Amino acid sequence: SSHEHKLNFRKSKEACLSYIQDALLQKQWKRAAEFLTCYVESLEKDYSREHIGPSEMIWRIGTEILWHHSQSSMKEFNCFMEQMKTLGVKRYLKVCLEHVFHLLCNGQIDEAYQNLSLAESWRFGEQTAIQDKEMKLIEAYRGLLDYYSWSKQKNILLEHSEDGFSDLAVEQEMHGFFRKAAVNLKEIIKIPGVWDVFVKCYVDLLEFYGDHNEARQVLNEYAYNSKFPANPNAHVYLYQFLKRQGESKKSLISALKILHDIVPSHELMIDFNTMLQKSKKRKKRRLGLEVIFAALDYAGWKENAKAWSCLARQVKQILISEKHLDWIKQEWNSRKDWWPAFHFSRYLAKRNWQEDKSLSYEKALVAGILLGKDCKYFKYVSHQGCKAQLKGFRMLKKFVNRHNPVYLRISG
Amino acid sequence: RDFNERCAQCSEVNWGLTDGGRFYCRSCHNVTERTREVVNTDFITNSRVQTISKGLRKEEKNDGGCEWYICEGFQLVLKKQAEALEALGVCPQMKDEVLCNFWRCYLQKSKQAYCKRPAGETIKTLSACESSTDVDSDPERPSLLRLLSLSESEGDLQTDCSFASSVSKVSESTSVYSGSVDGSLYLMKNQKEKLRMTMPMTLSFCYMALLWLREPITLSELLRFVVEGHIPYLNVFQHFPEKMKLCGLDLRIFCVESWPVYEEVFNKTHELAAFLDLPRFPDITDSCFLHPDMLCMKYLMEANLPDELHNWTCRVVKKIGIGEVDFLTLMPGDKSTRKVKYDVLAAAVIVVVLKLLFLLDDHYEWLLSEFAEERNKNNTEGGPHFEFKKWYEVVKRSLDVEQRKLDEERAKYLWRCEKPLFYSVKNKSKALKRRQMVVNLQNQFGKLSGSVRRAEKPNPSSFQLSWSEENTDGSCFHGHSLKGVLQEKCGLLTAMNPDYWLCTVKLCNEKLCGHLAHYREVEFPQSYHFVLGLFSFLLRIQPSYIHDEVCMIEHKLFNKKLYKKLKYNTVLRK
């Protein structure tokens, strides 16, 4: 017989780890520490074949415990991290970086900066080349902290200039930080990845010093280079930059197009629809309708009065022009089965009326057109609105009544 | 060494020293009465006397170590274990006489000492023919890894010569591969036929000695004491004297990283008894602790079952003849009889009795329990009737608590000790650094464990679960009556339960597939599984082993009926 139930070192430590895991998940830090104390002797065993060895386990678990345990101090935490740095040379830079993150979370910016500088100067034979990526990250974060210092100096400078005197020393320092920051930030964003915070900071620097071309190039690369992972923020940053630069509606629209494809529920969709609605091109207006319908598919938009007013405006416009009713029909086709329950239930009618009159107005308009004057939502809201003699509701009722036949054509 | 008398038997002057400090003649093994104070108190053993007297043992090496042989290490281990057992209450005879003699007998039979040409001698002769070249300089020398993997291969003296001479070195740098002189040789040669000594086997020696003396410790208890730390096993090498340096291959022999399993120790014990050509062991009679009647009583108490059940266990024991002296007493070398696991057997008897009285089919026992409950509510005179349901709830609660504690203990074992271990001089400094880091981390996180101090070793106790009749909450069932499940027929008390289900209709061939039956939890009633689980916890063995014994007992008990059935079947087929 094979005695698989035999208790040995490995099984005992596996069991120990699962107790630690349970304790961590339940935030029982004392208990986790108790079991970790028993686990640490795993360091003396050779686990070279395992995917994650004991030294990495101990580093990660120990960090969690020391970070959250009530009796643990920052001093102890730092001491532990230093020990962990000596444990595995292959992980040295990673440990340094995570240590820095913790210091930043604790507000110890200076210590974080010191650690980053120290890590930057680390050399260890061929490991230096192997851990090249981590090194780039470390340089990038130091660049980030340099940016932060630059930003502080900039604010001081602005304050002083408001008060009417210039400070050369501060200005020099500020430029110094700029140079240091720019070098490192530029490096990291060359590598494909998600670098939102670095990109934003770098662009901020470039804009301040007037290098708009470089800024535009950086943002374009970040948004459109296929090597970089799809990132909605990249498009948002580009759009915001172009807006700041006063670019044409055409380029603004093209910047937001991909954002709509990736994140149809993005908050910028309102801006997008507004621009598209006003366009002279038919295709763009068609897209606008698609965009606003798509946004309202998402639960987070249900009570967004602005979004509903966009939709209402466009639908009304189409009805009055008596052209392109088929657009509405197309959009409504895939939604007619579930939008009524999703947006236009009697319950929602009551609630919307109670909480937000303007919201219910816009929604009632849309409901009345799409579902006809006899639909629950429209009936309730328009009745309430007329009863309360609120402005516009009588017009609303008239409008919908007049265009009622349209609903039949849409839903057919 | 300065004893120059001629031997009375063979007239030679060729003396060695036995363990007890007596002179013996190396030519004819005649032991004299002349004793000699053990001069060298650093070493407990003088079993390697032949090499000692040749003056080859070097006391002082560069690191303060000296030559030592693997069996000396084991001798130390056994000594420590015997001392611990003595502290637990075992009679001193065990250490001073029984275990000692078994060990000496083993050394002799395995040709490691007390015989004409001990196996270790080959090292001496080989090192003489060894060239003076260094191990590392010859690229053809087998690597250590290959050497270890070759442990199964049989080699003639020539090939042994080349292997041994390449690795084991009696001179300066022995410590590269093993601190002991014969560590590598020990692991390498196929010692199967000579029953190579291992750490689990030390427990087999202990058990054998305990059995010989019929001490009241079962094998499962022995193993439990080992795991609880009352008997040295893990890291016992840290008690070796300073001069006995342990490193390299020695670690593979002495550093265990698993707890030995009942079956392992049990089987080895019997192999050992046969190997040593021991005679029939002292009789196990019905006044012995190991007799099923006695053990049943103990386990019934521990399982919180009514004392009245003891009558039934005795009846079953008697009926199937497992209380007979010849059945219970160990006869080494007798391959025809199945070896008796006293503790498992007693537990299985109890399980069978429970099945006889309560059926344990997940229906009947609860029905009986309901009747008993009714009766107990309406009639409180004459003591309570045993209610299976109540018993189940009480025992399950305690069992769950203890099992949870045990599981946590298992996860918290510390396997290493202060003495750092390293395989070669090369990683000595790395090992020391690691050890230091481990100690630091243990201190750091130990402080954060809060007030949870690791409890001191609990005092060794024979009972893991205890139930007191003084408890007014009615959680002790010892005094409860079985009246509700029994009836009288022809002046004899029998069970009300008319049925019985066999665990298996046909027994497997144990020699072929290792078990008498194959236990799968899902195929059996939950109550049966619970009862197996209870004893599995108490004895610290897998439920399947108890299940095997239950099957064996059932087949003995219902032998006639089964035989009839088979006969009937064959008649039909014709």
From TrEMBL, chain A:
Biological process, per Gene Ontology: transcription by RNA polymerase I
- GO CC annotation, single: RNA polymerase I transcription regulator complex
Q: Which InterPro entries match?
A: SL1/TIF-IB_Component, TAF1A
Source taxon at top rank: Eukaryota
Q: Which PANTHER family does the UniProt record give? A: TATA BOX-BINDING PROTEIN ASSOCIATED FACTOR RNA POLYMERASE I SUBUNIT A, TATA BOX-BINDING PROTEIN-ASSOCIATED FACTOR RNA POLYMERASE I SUBUNIT A
According to UniProt, the name of this protein is TAF1A polymerase
Automatic annotation (TrEMBL), chain B:
Any one Gene Ontology MF annotation carried by this entry is: RNA polymerase I core promoter sequence-specific DNA binding
- Single GO cellular component annotation? RNA polymerase I core factor complex
User: Which GO biological process entries does UniProt record here?
Assistant: nucleolar large rRNA transcription by RNA polymerase I
Out of the domains of life, which is the source? Eukaryota
Q: Note one Pfam family from the annotation.
A: Zn_ribbon_RRN7
Domain Rrn7/TAF1B N-terminal cyclin per the UniProt entry, residue ranges:
74-241
What UniProt keywords are attached to this protein's entry?
A: DNA-binding, Metal-binding, Nucleus, Transcription, Transcription regulation, Zinc, Zinc-finger
RRN7-type domain: residues covered:
2-33
InterPro entries xrefs:
Rrn7_cyclin_C (IPR048538), Rrn7_cyclin_N (IPR048540), TAF1B/Rrn7 (IPR033599), TF_Rrn7_Zf (IPR021752)
Q: What range(s) does the Rrn7/TAF1B C-terminal cyclin domain occupy?
A: 258-448
Quote the subcellular location field of this record: Nucleus, Nucleolus
Q: Which family does it belong to?
A: Belongs to the RRN7/TAF1B family.
- Protein's name in the database: TATA box-binding protein-associated factor RNA polymerase I subunit B
Classification lineage = Eukaryota, Metazoa, Chordata, Craniata, Vertebrata
Q: Which gene encodes it?
A: Taf1b
